[in-house]
Amino acid sequence: MKPVSLSEASLPSQIWNSAPQLDSIPVISTQSLVPTGARAVLIAPHPGDEVVTCGGLLQLLSNLGHPLQLISITDGSASHPGSRQWSEKRLSVFRPQESVEAIRRLGLPMHSLKWIRGGFTDNALVEHEDQIAQFITRYLRPGDVVFSTWREDGNVDHDTVGRASARAAANAGATYNDVPFWAWHWPARDRELIPWHRARKVRLDTWTVARKSHATHAYASQLDGEPAIGLAPLLPRPLLERIRLPYEIVLV
């Protein structure tokens, strides 16, 4: 699946706000998704992906006392090619600060949260998929429940990290779950490409949704584009609207 284009991202009829299948997705409890005592591992291709995909689930798991581990494959510093305002040098400092603030806004315990940073380069992950899988494997153990971006999400970095994460989980004896990100913003006509039979809905209450939205807005560098050089916001308005839905969807 091709990535979402700017024109498609502005269309009102996208999968997330029009697909009839969304209403019939079975609900799964947090306890069924992550068994008591199991560690949850969230693997994000870029900073911010962990909040957009699983910001609500992370809060629920933290409240239940599950040990959490985040793995950020890149530092996101190459997200604005050609930008003077957000140079790679500036972003290499700023993006980690945004991530820490986002996690603080989610209410996660920074003192006990394990956060691994891979240091791989944005937009070049497909060339290093084997290395990424080996890197992730080092930090997994049997019984972990792993979440990462869907292997067919339509973004090359997301797809690559999803495949690498699935391989690493299999190598470590962990359970793997895909989490769509950009796929929800495909045009409505592509809804049949979603594996609805694997979809499960995690319910979120009002306060959990509010904290997730507040955390997403910590990524200030991603909220505004630079029209002068053709850069659109990396967190466009339709995405910010979608994350206020009272659920998150995982492919089990």
TrEMBL record:
- Protein species of origin: Pseudomonas monachiensis
Molecular function (GO) terms listed?
hydrolase activity
Q: What is its EC number?
A: 3.5.1.-
Q: Which domain of life is it from?
A: Bacteria
Cytoplasm as a keyword of this entry, yes or no, is: no
**Record Pfam families:** PIG-L
Tell me the lineage of the source organism.
Bacteria, Pseudomonadati, Pseudomonadota, Gammaproteobacteria, Pseudomonadales
> This protein is called what?
PIG-L deacetylase family protein
Q: Which InterPro entries match?
A: GlcNAc_PI_deacetylase-related, LmbE-like_dom_sf
